[in-house]
Structure prediction request, 253 residues.
Amino acid sequence: MLKPQGYAIIVDPDAPTREFDTVTCCHCQRIVFLKPGAVRRGFDAGDPANPCPDDDPGGFCRMCMQPTCGPCADKGECVPFERKLQQMERRDQLLKSIGV
Amino acid sequence: MCANFAAAMTRTASTTLSVGALTAAASNPRRYKLSDWVFGAGEAAPADGNFLWQIQRCTTAGTAGSSVTPQSIDPGDTQAATTVCGQAHSADPTLTANAILASIGLNQRASFRWVPAPGKELVIPATASNGLAFRTPTAALVTCTSQAWFEEQ
Prediction:
């Protein structure tokens, strides 16, 4: 991959060492492992309901210009993870301010 | 300047209880970023066993069997008082449904490492007791270890 966003290594004494480029979903931060090759293929075993986890490379958000995971691509909306972080932190501040 | 820390969490693998959890402190929470993650069953005798490893977001710290003191990578940094690390939970953290950030199946003999590119680390909000749980939802009952490096913001 031209610009990977991470790297994964599996060392197994009974099998060759496997190495993968990874991308991180810009909407939820799920890690998607990519298979080597000219065509973008990946696996995202994070979603047990995913019917085809072995070949789901996710999608691409043209608002963020970043890759997304399969479930976020299926939603078809753009909510950057930074905004979600801010929402989580503001909710915590609100709850503290009202004594909850 | 951000401070960097390392924490190793160990337990006899459980399919229902987390190996460990790394959460923002209940008071004075700060964001942190997971910058490196290694796991495996290194303390177990070599054998075949099926392991599924996961990182899942959580909103409480749960009840840890013991706490882990994150070690600063630079001795000049102060200890991570804004993060809480626990291992061998007896009551699991409250897991956020479907917020599984990584999931990978391994043989018990294998070890795994994931390193994000700079700027692509997993981020934890500065929200009390929010964080990451390191889990083995499918596992043989052997000792396993999850080693995390993180950067306090």
About this structure: Residues 81-97 of chain A form the longest helix (17 residues). The mean pLDDT of chain A is 82.
